[in-house]
Each structure stands twice: as structure tokens, then as C-alpha cells.
Design brief:
The complex is a heterodimer. Chain A is α/β, with parallel strands linked by helices. In chain A, 53% of the residues lie in helices and 15% in strands. In chain A, helix 6 crosses helix 7 (204-210) and helix 8 packs across helix 10 (314-322). Classes of the chains: A alpha/beta, B mainly alpha.
Amino acid sequence: MSDELVLSGGGSGGGVAVATDALLAVIDGCETAAREAVDGARALAVLAARLEQLSAVEAGAAGDALRLAAVQARSAAALAASAAPPADRLAWALRAAADGYGLAEAVATRAVESATEALAAVLGRVAPGLAVAASSGVIAVAAAAALLAPVLARPFGLDDELAALGTAAGAELNRFLSRPETVAAIRTAVMAADDAILGGLTGPALAALLGEDGIGATGLPFVATIAMGLAGGAGMLRETSVRLAERRSSSTAAPDPPRGWGERFERIPAPASDDGMQVLIERYTVPGEPDRFEVYIAGTVSFDPVAGTEPWDLTSNVGNASGADAASVRAVAEAMRDAGIDDTTPVQLTGFSQGAGTAARVATLDGFAVVGIAAFGGNTGQTPIPDGVRTVLVEHDDDLVPALGGRQDNDHAMLVRREAYGEVAPPAGVVLPAHQRPAYAATAALMDDADSSRMTDATAAFDAFTADAVAVERLEYRFEREDAP
Amino acid sequence: MSMIVPSAAGLAGLVALVAAGLDHRADRLDAAAVGLAATLPHAWRGPAAAAFATAVREVQHDLSEAASATREAAVLARRAAAIGGRA
């Protein structure tokens, strides 16, 4: 696994820079060194002047020694002063290099996307079948097939055949889907899918006008809406209403707010081991202020394309991508209102996988004062998180789930990237290993160990939210779908 | 004993503090640079990494040199205090 964190975005402090945490720590070190060298030179100059004053009133050997000390102090001051500019220059050069790298990466990515979208639009018109294959993504289809195959095979009694095929091809497919190049291609394919469809329906020129680079009337929501419409005809991806099935409450004598990313991530419910609970809400009491809340949202529980009773399913995933309020979003909003959260009570949201995408969508809802989002491994790219919300998005370059959310357009967010497996082969028998909880828990731990001020400042800002709390109440929620087909 | 002793000794202590600060910063920078060498982004490896390492070493060297000169000033100030003490 790789321990390298790559940080980018983050508004005024981040700019367009893309750099590792280690590099940012060196930049911090150089800037501090320059500042301290200047301060040291000033202090030495003052001390040299005082030594000179003493030497003027002291005769004999002691006076001579004082004069020597003063000369030496002046010399040291000059050396310290001369150390500052190179340190400043190095910090500036490193920051410029990080900015340049980020700019080049952004321009190159955008150029590839534009070319792919244009090609997809043309193919959609002249060869719709080919367009679907090339632009909507053979890779994306393969990824979806790998996820859905067990479910689709069940009604046909092909489980055994699929299992045998999976054993033979699973490891290789897993490696393929966990390559950063594959993940990047999926991200591009997702962004081009709407152009392929529109190109087929309206022609390339109109597709360009309507697409993300035009008036932005289409994009990923358009594709997800069409997918839901088509699948709905076959009884799949049909949305339902949700109802609160279970609610638990508990209080602790002393508040124990999360400290750092590892603790924060650990609190996200894992329904399989948390009695199916999907949402955890912590209500913190702060003297003289409105209550404040931490909300933790679980990841996908079921990948069955036919909605059952579980709201944290594939239908909610696609529904969130379509821009609608999917079952999981409606469930979280209901839990938040039940806990007493409104537009006067500040709230931070933390989610993993579908929980991350759900957190991003909840932040766009009226009626809540969302001040922070920590999203791990979610498809958040095309969900417009409001600028004023402090946002940290954590994505693995070898995890295709965030890529299914398309290009990351939340420029104000601080994006923390890492290759979960890097040059190490992902484990066999685990589907999408870079998307699993242990992989993101490891990244959260690395974020806690990070040295750069960019990372430590973000950590401090999230931790400060509950720093003055004097009491906490914990509320856990489980929701179910109603009227599932 | 000369009246100079307390002042010179105090000044020596202050100068030594400045030296320690500069030394500390040089060490921190050195540790950060060593840690970074293994984790540079792929695109930054190769000649760029070598140039970067050289630049960091130069800054570290400058700081260490300033710290060394400052320590020497502190020694001289202490010596002045000692001479004053014997006078």
C-alpha cells in the first residue's frame, strides 16, 4: 500500500496546487525557517548592540572579551539574515511547482474530457451502438456487470456457473478495476455518457450546447435519470417512500467527541455489525450556544437493483446521482429533523461510500445549517456542495466508486487522494478492495499523522466544532423502504 | 566582582537560545526533507528531485552555519562574564 497522501483544492489556502502532504510539510518548514531566521537575526542584532554597550564601560580583558562576543553576534546575525531568502525562495519555488502540476493536471484532464465528449456526441449520431460501447464506457459496463452479475444470475439459476467464472476471472477483473488508469477512464466515460446519448438524439452541435461545457442542462444527473427510467420499466431502480423502523438513544456522562479522522471514520455505522443502523447522530450541548450535531452516514448495504426494504441500496445510489432526493437522503433528513436539527443548529456530516454521496446531497437541502462535510469514498463529484461548507473529500485513485460520480467539480473542497494499493496487488476475493472500509480507515489514520499545515488545519477545524461541548446524546436510526415492488 | 557579570551572563543565555532555535529549525527541515525524498509525486522524481534535495540542503546548511556562529557568540559572552567574575 502507498502511504502517500496527495492534497489539492481547498479554496484560498489550496488554490490549484496538487502536492503530497510530505511536500507541503517541507514548504511549511521552509517558510517557518525563513521567518525564524529573520527573527533570529533581529534578536542577535539587539543582543550585539547590548554587548557593545557593556564593552564600552568595561575595561581590561573582560571588555575585550565582550567586544569579541559583540563582533561574533553581529556576524551570526548577518548569517542568519542571509539564510532567510534562500528558504523563502525554495518555499516559493515548491509552491509554484505544486501549482503548476495542479494546473497541468487540470488542463490535461479537461482536454481529454472535452475530446471524449465531442467524440461521444459524434458517435452517438452516426453509430449509436458504437457510441454506447466507446463513450458510455465498455469499462463502466464491465464494472457494473461485475457488481450486478450475482444478482442478475440468481433468477436464471446460474449462480454456480457464475461462481466458477468469478473464481477464474475475478482476481484479474479486480486488478483491472483497481488500476488508477481504469478508474480515470471510468471517470471520463461517465462524463461523456450524456454526450453520447444527446448526440444520438439531437446531433453533436446541440449536444455540445446542452452539455457540461455548454449550458450544463445535462451531465451525470441526465444519464442517471435516463438509467432509472429505463430500468424502471423492468422493475429495477424504482424509488419508494421510507419509514423510521428503529431509533435508539443513549447518553454518556462526559462528551467524547471525535478527535482526528480515524475516530471520525470509525463512528460511521457499519449496518452489518451495527444491527442494521444506518445513521448515527450525536447531539452536543455547548453552554450559551445552540446544540450542535455530528451526523454519521453508512455506506451501501445492498447492491440489488430491485428495491427491497433496505434504503441504502443501488436504487438510492443511482437516485442520488440523478439529483433527486433518494431514499437514503430522505431518511437522513428525517433522522436529522427527529434529532432536533434545523437551520439554527450547526451540523457536520461524515459519510462513507453512499453515505458520502448522501452527505453531499443533504448539504444542498434547505432547512439545515450544514457547516462541514467529511466524505470518504463517495461519488460526490457532480453534486454541488455549497461553497460555504467546509469540505474534505477523501478518494482513492484505485477506487472506481468515486469515479462513478464523474469529475470532481467541488473546487472549494479539500481533496485528499491516495492509492490504497499502489504497486501492491489487491487482495483476491475482495470486490473493489480499495473501496472497502479498512482501506479508507488506513487513509484516515495517515491523515491524522500528516505533517503539513494544510492537513493539520483541516483536522483542527473539524475537531474544534465540538471542542467546548459539555454533554452528548447519541441517537441511532434504522430506516426501511415502504411499498417496495 | 565586576558589575558586568550578570548582564554578560544573561546575554550569553539569550544568544544561546537563538542558536538553539536556529539549530532546531535546521534539524526539522532536514528531517522533513529526508521524509519527502521517498514520497515525492511520481512526476517529480528524477532530476527535479535531485535539484530539490540540493536546494533543501543549502537552506539547511545556511541555518546550521548561522546557528554555529551564534553558539560561538554565546561562548564569547560567557567567557566575558567569567573574566568579569574573576576581576
